[in-house]
Amino acid sequence: MRQVAHASEAAVGGIIGQVSSTATRLQAMVEQVTAAATQTAVKSTSVAAAAVQAASNVGMVAAASEEVGASVVEIGRQVDGPANLAQIAVAEAEHTAGLVQELSGAVAKIGDVVALISSIANQTHLLALNATVEAAR
């Protein structure tokens, strides 16, 4: 009877050791996931800042293009010469303004992607925290 009790005790001790080892490994994995989520959040913030800067730069380029366009139109009015030259300049200015608008649209899309990345990073961070809580149980 004692042998059975000792054997059972040894088996339970082995199982407890395995569970403890598994919990330790799980805790290490959770810490890795948490670190990765934190890095993702930091990088997402950096990308978002870069996108905001790019959007600001596009805005400045758009404003400068509008000023150039207005200047070209004004020069066309004031300068004696062929009207065709002024029309060509105006057409080029309008074309440039269209390109700037396309660039602004691209920056807006970049902003959307950055927002999505930031959202995913936040969700990953929450999942890592949840895993930490579950591992602590």
TrEMBL record:
<dbReference type="GO" id="GO:0016020">
    <property type="term" value="C:membrane"/>
</dbReference>
<protein>
    <submittedName>
        <fullName>Methyl-accepting chemotaxis protein</fullName>
    </submittedName>
</protein>
<keyword id="KW-0807">Transducer</keyword>
<dbReference type="InterPro" id="IPR004089">
    <property type="entry name" value="MCPsignal_dom"/>
</dbReference>
<dbReference type="GO" id="GO:0007165">
    <property type="term" value="P:signal transduction"/>
</dbReference>
<dbReference type="Pfam" id="PF00015">
    <property type="entry name" value="MCPsignal"/>
</dbReference>
<feature type="domain" description="Methyl-accepting transducer">
    <location>
        <begin position="22"/>
        <end position="137"/>
    </location>
</feature>
